[in-house]
Amino acid sequence: MKPGEIGIRRFLQVSSALVIAGLLLEIVSLVWFHPLSFVLFAFVAVSLIALGILVYLVSLIFVVRPVTNHGNSRY
Amino acid sequence: MEAAARGLVIGILICQIALSIVLAAVFLIRPSLTSAAGWKIVAFIALCVLPALCIVGGMNTHVQRSEQTQFCISCHVMTPYGQSLYVDDPSHIPAQHFQNHRVPPDMACYSCHGDYSIYGPLKDKVQGLKRIYIQYVSTPPNPITIPGGFKNAQCLHCHLGARGFEENQVHAAMIDSLKSNQTSCLTSGCHDTAHDVANLDHQKFWKAAQ
Predict the structure, then answer these.
(1) Would you give the distance in Å from CA B39 to the centre of its chain?
(2) Nearest CB neighbour to B24, from listed A16, A41, A42
């Protein structure tokens, strides 16, 4: 296993964990009929999901294997 | 029917969120799956596309929910304002509008207190967040007041152009003054009984038939 692969796997796990936490909070906010549920969704759940997406996108950008002689690049 | 449709939308959204959670969990447990090209696409859908759609769906649902009467009066401090909608007295403007369905009963608060300008819904949400802050961090004012006062535009949004409103000679005589907000519909002595929460104990209440 190459270091780059370990890196992206760690990124994917962090991203997945953040997205799952955010989505679970979104479910809680949807079934909880209270003004604070909007705050929970807008400030906590959306932040976690957005951070998860960002970590995933960052992993795509930065954890890339250098271009080979054949011109292919992959993570 | 409306409530059933809303429930269905929330149900579909929760199913979508559950699917997103399951897919994201796959990559939490087995991140090595992304070595295969097909799984890279699945990872993109699971960790980018579906969560983004869940945010959009959730925001839409929460914005629509925050326009409901039940949502507004779910704050303890708003409970008497909700009760005032059932006052059995036609001179009480909110009660008259609510009981005669001049506003949609399930969106009664938003119909009269919503900002109908282009950025109105956004301003309403910011105001709502300020009120939540006041409710939980500061002390709510007593009585509750509307920042900047109640604007005639809220009334004219529906009444302007309506036959009953236009044919009323008093309205016709002061229409420019009403449009420019120089004369208030509520506080100039014409329709001055709004949510009279201080005297709710002395009021008779209407009970809606089931």
Answers:
(1) 42
(2) A16
